[in-house]
Design brief:
Mean pLDDT: 34
Radius of gyration: 19 Å
Largest sheet: 13 strands, antiparallel
Structural class: mainly beta
Helix content: under 10%
Order of helices and strands: EEEEEEEEEEEEEEEEEEEEEEEEEEEEE
Distance between the termini: 33 Å
């Protein structure tokens, strides 16, 4: 126990439970192995292997699906491995799990750095930056400033959520630029460039997105987001959000003006693969 703080660690079958000060709780399982972290009101849940990551930082929630992996920004981390170093007061937490290292600083500026296999996750909550590398995939998120950078395979996505939300996506050699606020979307696919105006309205407004057979329903105000990707459905409640869908070959994303509806329309000149649907929400 550290201060009012309690830590419970099991390594093998292996569960780790940590409570740090003001009701913050961390639960870690290593092997079958789940790590659950609650920092303040913030909970982070990450599964690396299966692998799901759920993170909520303050009032901010992020939901990301990478491959079969789902990442939800709520502060929950699941890792696999071994050594943990925790300093609570200053407050720094350093975790090495297998080849995997996790670095967490919880204070005015909470920073978390996680490396799982080849995967690295960097989270700063306060500043607030999150950097995640999963496989070859890297995700960089700054919430507050607010910038998000995601690299999935060769693909990089850059999102800034603030006064001027900007989204930059590179898929293969292809780059997609999205600004939501001034609301411009700039897409370059194989040398070709596409400009799209994007209105993301907040206040009881509903947004409908269809990508391939996949449908995404977003209600902002109430505020519910419903996403179906493949046969999978994802429900998210948000306040303010950015939505990015990487498109299928021969398709592009266009907004129907009368309805707040985005649909994927056929266009042979564009050749883009739908790798995943990424939904980022900031409350």
């Amino acid at each position: 126990m550290v201060g009012g703080e309690e830590m419970d660690v099991e390594v093998g079958g292996e569960e780790m439970d940590v409570e740090v000060g003001g009701g913050e709780e961390m639960d870690v399982e290593v092997g079958g192995e789940e790590m659950d972290v609650e920092v303040g009101g913030e909970e982070m849940d990450v599964e690396v292997g299966g692998e799901e990551m759920d993170v909520e930082v303050g009032r901010e929630e992020m939901d990301v699906e990478v491959g079969g992996e789902e990442m939800d920004v709520e502060m929950d981390v699941e890792v696999g491995g071994e050594e943990m170093d925790v300093e609570v007061g200053g407050e720094e937490m350093d975790v090495e799990v297998g080849g995997e290292e996790m670095d967490v600083e919880v204070g005015g500026e909470e920073e978390m750095d996680v490396e799982v296999g080849g995967e690295e996750m960097d989270v700063e909550v306060g500043g607030e930056e999150m950097d995640v590398e999963v496989g070859g995939e890297e995700m960089d998120v700054e919430v507050g400033g607010e910038e998000m950078d995601v690299e999935v395979g060769g693909e990089e996505m850059d999102v800034e959520v603030g006064g001027e939300e900007e989204m930059d996506v590179e898929v293969g050699g292809e780059e997609m630029d999205v600004e939501v606020g001034g609301e411009e979307m700039d897409v370059e696919v194989g040398g070709e460039e596409m400009d799209v105006e994007m209105d993301v309205e907040v206040g009881g407004e509903e947004m409908d997105v269809e990508v391939g057979g996949e449908e995404m329903d977003v209600e902002v105000g109430g505020e519910e987001m419903d996403v179906e990707v493949g046969g999978e459905e994802m429900d998210v409640e948000v306040g303010r959000m950015v939505v990015c869908g990487l498109m299928k070959s021969g398709q592009r994303l266009r907004r129907k003006k009368k309805k707040k509806h985005f649909s994927v329309l056929s266009r042979r000149t564009f050749d883009v693969q739908l790798h995943k649907l990424i939904v980022v929400s900031v409350i």
